[in-house]
Amino acid sequence: MEPLRESIKQVDADTWLIGPVMLYRSKGYLETSTWYDQSDDFSYTVTSAPTPLPTAVPWSADDSDFKLVYDVAEQSAVWSLGNSAFCKIKLYADSTTSEATTLAHVWDKQPTNFEIPSVFYSAESNGRSYLFLSRVPGRTLAEAWPTLDEKWRRHYVGAVVEVCETLESWRGKTICGVDGKNVIEPYLLKFRESENFDPENLLRPCKLMGMDCSKFVFCHADLGPTNIIVEDVPQKGTIGVIDWEVAGFFPRGWIRTKFRLSSGMNLPESVGGLSSQQWWRSEIQKLLGKRGFEDYSSEWQAWSR
């Protein structure tokens, strides 16, 4: 199959073919549209692609309507669409919970201390998922970090710990996604182990580490600075949380432990040396410790060897 970054093709100035779907754009508000971008007064409509497929040309990086904002190792690619939406295309593993399903679950819980994207449209085809999402207003914490003083940096540490506490009040029956399907957590697989995300396979190392596995709580599992949205200029201190791809139910001990282990939650290299890059997740895990969350990182290191 074609690379993920080549999934978008242009049919005409206002029509795109994106995998199994068509995206149409029209000027002005259209009541039947999938979403409306008020900032540029365009309506966007997503439908299943027709048969036969229309003639289309490859997406160009010069296309000002789509901007590639994320592209990692042929696993996931994200484009911004206008000013109010994103299109996320990723490889899809069978029997795993989709991000669209997880977001629907979080929306149903109606959390009040953070915002999340709305799902406009989702589809799966040929081992890939296609997700159209609203843009949470603001910018990522990683982008904002150099402009923040100590007060605001610590405010956001506290805000994210409160997110963890909110999520862990939601309970599941085992290690799994919100619909009972598998949750993708590579840190609970040994190096070179096949990608078996079956609940029993992920539960085994948790028990070996000595975690309390009598109950399972909800966890985002990737609350790094690129997944936290803050105000362009801090005023109220509100936050948004994006990228719910690996969220699911885990033993409570995994919440703090994941912050200790995952370098993916570091601050950007531009902030300085390794200790500076680790500041965010280090301060998060310290505050989680003060709030009664346990740390099994040493046990994880011993198990992983």
UniProtKB/TrEMBL annotation:
Aminoglycoside phosphotransferase domain mapped to chain residues: 92-249
Name of a matching Pfam family: APH
InterPro entries reported for this sequence: AGP_Transferase, Aminoglycoside_PTrfase, Kinase-like_dom_sf
PANTHER family reported in the protein's UniProt record: AMINOGLYCOSIDE PHOSPHOTRANSFERASE DOMAIN-CONTAINING PROTEIN, AMINOGLYCOSIDE PHOSPHOTRANSFERASE-RELATED-RELATED
Identification of the protein by name: Aminoglycoside phosphotransferase domain-containing protein
Organism encoding this protein: Talaromyces islandicus
